[in-house]
Amino acid sequence: MAAKRFAACFLMLVLISLLVAYSFSLPLNWRSLNLIKKVNCKGPYIGLITVFPPEETAFFQIGAFKPNQKHPSVDLSGRRFLVGKIHDKKVVYVRCGVGMVNAAAATQQMLDLFDILGIVHFGIAGNANNSLSIGDVTIPQEFAHTGIWDWLNPNRSLNYDEVANLDFKRYNVPRGDNLLGHIGFSYEQFFSEYGKANIARPLFWANTTRQWLQVAANLKGIKLNQCLNSSVCLPQKPQLVVGLRGSTANIFVDNAAYRDFLFQTFRVSSVDMESSAVVMTSLSNGFPVIVIRGLSDLAGGQSGHNSIDTFGSLAAINACKVVVQFIKQLHLDTREPGFPRSIHP
Ligand SMILES: *[C@@H]1O[C@H](CO)[C@@H](O)[C@H](O)[C@H]1NC(C)=O
Ligand SMILES: *[C@@H]1O[C@H](CO)[C@@H](O)[C@H](O)[C@H]1NC(C)=O
Ligand SMILES: *[C@@H]1O[C@H](CO)[C@@H](O)[C@H](O)[C@H]1NC(C)=O
Ligand SMILES: *[C@@H]1O[C@H](CO)[C@@H](O)[C@H](O)[C@H]1NC(C)=O
Predict the structure, then answer these.
(1) 179 alpha carbon to ligand 1 midpoint, in Å?
(2) Is residue 254 part of a domain?
(3) Is the residue at 242 inside a domain?
(4) Nucleoside phosphorylase domain spans which residues (predicted)?
């Protein structure tokens, strides 16, 4: 009798160990996958992606996000995806982490696993356009990844299949050549649902979704915060600007000369470290995407301290205000056949 019971227990233990070993060998844990199945039954959702804790704090401070009571969150690859609603629209939210790898990974995972209609990416950015001000919110029409470089031998002549060149020697003070040579800006390799499989095409400007930009353009009069508290205010009322250009690289820009170069060369009004990765990943997969960034600093154009520490939270709040109004205005009865796949060429 005892031997029999022991055998049964032993078998059970072996089975459990096998199951545990198997679940560790799965790319995602089965509990999360099971949860996602249940979450998706209640979909589709708008995917919200922000970057780092101060932006997340602003998102919760706005108070528009109502967590789902039954399935509030799913953990995947160390990130926490939150399920809930904003103005009766179903959303899945994640904080991806700084940089383009985190941005692309979180975007791809969201699109692959959740039932998603499109991506709203938001946060703060550096301001590269002297006609804009700190506290303004920008919703760019297109993004370039301005961090794909060929760092060239000083003796090599400029290469004209590059998008642009940055000559270090032009920035020498006092003037004179140095050994850093120049960097040539290159294209992304863009894979797409709509292209030939396994063939990438060169891409410099990645467009956000035109129909969503039109919705955003109607928000232009939106009231944004001008004051941090009762004593610290911006000199002018912040505004929403729609349709300019943005740039992204794994580079935090706090340098006036490089800021000027980016504005003069690419006509970009904002600099950040994630947007083009989120946009390109969404476009590759055929999903609509929009980027909403509050301007927190002058990316090096300031005299004195970088204002990100003072006005970062205000810029983040202003971006969130626009996100909430955008989601409110979005018509989601667009899920007719062909949506979202008809939105992109
Ligand atoms: C560039 O050319 C100069 C003059 O010909 C030569 O002395 C130098 O070594 C070259 N530099 C490199 C990095 O090739
Ligand atoms: C992106 O938008 C610009 C401006 O509307 C347009 O000229 C360009 O063709 C678009 N690019 C793609 C790949 O659709
Ligand atoms: C307002 O914010 C500034 C900057 O963070 C801080 O130095 C100041 O103490 C705050 N003032 C009040 C009245 O809270
Ligand atoms: C800079 O911002 C202003 C104000 O929104 C805008 O009119 C202008 O076109 C922007 N410059 C560029 C190069 O995009």
Answers:
(1) 9
(2) yes
(3) yes
(4) 46-328
| Ligand 1 atom at minimum distance from 181 CA | 13
pTM for the full model? 0.88
User: How far is it, in rounded angstroms, from Cα 246 to Cα 127?
Assistant: 9
Alpha carbon of 294 to ligand 4 centroid (Å): 15
Looking at ligand 3, which residue's alpha carbon is closest to its atom 3? 232
Q: Return d(Cα 58, Cα 317) in angstroms, integer.
A: 5
Residues of the chain with pLDDT under 70: 1-28, 159-160, 333-345
Angle at 140 between CA 137 and CA 145, to 5 degrees: 120
- The enclosing H or E element of 14 equals helix 2-25
Q: Are 200 and 190 in contact (CB under 8 A)?
A: yes
Q: Which atom of ligand 4 lies nearest, measured to the CA of 241?
A: 5
**CATH code of the domain covering residue 52:** 3.40.50.1580
- Range of the structural domain that residue 57 is part of: 37-144+201-329
Please count the structural domains in the chain.
Answer: 1
Q: What is the pLDDT of residues 103-134, one digit of tens each?
A: 999 999 999 999 999 999 999 999 999 999 99
| 335 CB burial (10 A radius; 0-12, 13-18, 19+) | exposed
Q: Identify whether 106 is part of a domain.
A: yes
